[in-house]
Fold this protein.
Amino acid sequence: MQTWLKQARTILSRENIWPTMVSKLHGHYNYYGVSGNFESIRRYYRKTCSLVFKWMNRRSQKKTWNWEGFSKYLETVPLPKPKLTYALYNTW
């Protein structure tokens, strides 16, 4: 995600990058969302949120958001939360 965000932030606008990032997260959860791997995909979600926050603050010369403002933005335009998709083991 970090490599993709680094490339996409200079090419795409926020309105164009957000739907792609949402679909990338859905794909990651569908592929890696197996029982016993929830902590890993939750870490991936948190890392993605921090990278997006960093990317949004680099769009201008001054910091435009603090973490509280970014959290409010995520409430209006949310990123998909991590979820388990497949039960390989009976741990649900």
